[in-house]
Design a protein that fits this description.
This protein has about 250 residues and is α+β, with helices and mostly antiparallel strands. The chain has a single domain, classed as Alpha-Beta Complex (Creatine Amidinohydrolase), CATH 3.90.230.10. About 25% of the residues lie in helices and about 25% in strands. Strands 8-7-9-14-15 form a five-stranded antiparallel β-sheet, with helices on both faces. Strands 1, 2, 4 and 5 form a four-stranded antiparallel β-sheet that branches. A three-stranded antiparallel β-sheet has the order 3-12-11, with no helix packed on it. Strand 14 and strand 15 form a beta hairpin. The longest helix has 22 residues.
């Protein structure tokens, strides 16, 4: 496993990449409403990314046909935007996207409520988001990678939700996916020691029911096997000498 340590110059580029991505997320959060198609969300997302002089890093990545993964209700991740998929009142919608700024990638995901949603759905969104923050309490130099995994798992298990095991977080930098892989479920081994200059995409994906998932026939969209709701929360973070720095956090958490 070759985990890259970013130089001060690279860290500055990663910071700007993350800052710009947070602006895109903030903008898209304001357009999600009943009646909008998932394709329109993707179109606006790509337009905003390019308006900042950046490249949408998901577009054509391993053949993915869009700039924003738009996943609705029981879709966990990698939902393909469509003109015919119309957002409805009461849905929960996960947006996962990233961009490239001067050769450096950022990656972040948020799950949004559409209008009035059930108390159970809101709790799932809140627990998923908080599990990220519980995990990064361990994201400090001298700790081990799987301290993050175990903290996420310990928090989520208290609510009885299913943790997706088929998909994990990852390192990030000049490539969208770098070493190491970052599971969101408990690990026996400690994993590599965390060092200042590591940049990681930590992204719990949590299901209201079982953690089991399936892929649809489009070979991209991942859904919960039991059709329960799923939420996703992700940020790109930097390991420092002290507290971790969240590079992709904007006005809307």
């Amino acid at each position: 496993m070759a985990i890259t340590i970013k130089s001060p110059r690279e860290i500055e580029l990663m910071r700007e990449s993350g800052r710009l991505l947070s602006l895109v997320h903030d903008e898209l959060a304001g357009i999600i409403r009943p009646g909008i198609s998932t394709k329109e969300i993707d179109r606006i997302g790509e337009e905003v990314i390019r308006s900042y002089g950046c490249i949408p890093n998901f577009l054509h990545y391993n053949g993915y046909p869009a700039s924003v993964c738009v996943s609705v209700n029981d879709e966990v991740v990698h939902g393909i935007p469509s003109e015919s998929r119309i957002i409805q009142e009461g849905d929960i919608v996960s947006l996962d996207m990233g961009l490239i700024y001067h050769g450096y990638h950022s990656d972040a995901a948020r799950t949004h409520a559409v209008g009035q949603i059930s108390r159970q759905a809101q709790q799932l969104i809140d627990v998923t988001r908080q599990s990220f923050y519980e995990g990064i309490k361990m994201a400090r130099a001298g700790k081990h990678l799987h301290d993050i995994s175990n903290a996420i798992a310990a928090y989520v298990s208290g609510y009885g939700y299913g943790i997706v095991r088929a998909l994990v977080g990852h390192g990030i930098g000049v490539s969208l996916h770098e070493d190491p892989q970052i599971p969101n479920f408990a690990q026996r081994r400690r994993g590599p020691k965390l060092q200042p200059g590591m940049t990681l995409a930590v992204e719990p994906m949590i299901n209201m029911g079982s953690g089991d998932v399936e892929w649809l026939d489009d070979d991209w969209t991942v859904v919960t096997a039991d059709h329960s709701l799923s939420a996703h929360y992700e940020n790109t973070i930097l390991i420092t000498e002290g507290e971790p720095e969240i590079l992709t956090l904007g006005k809307i958490p």
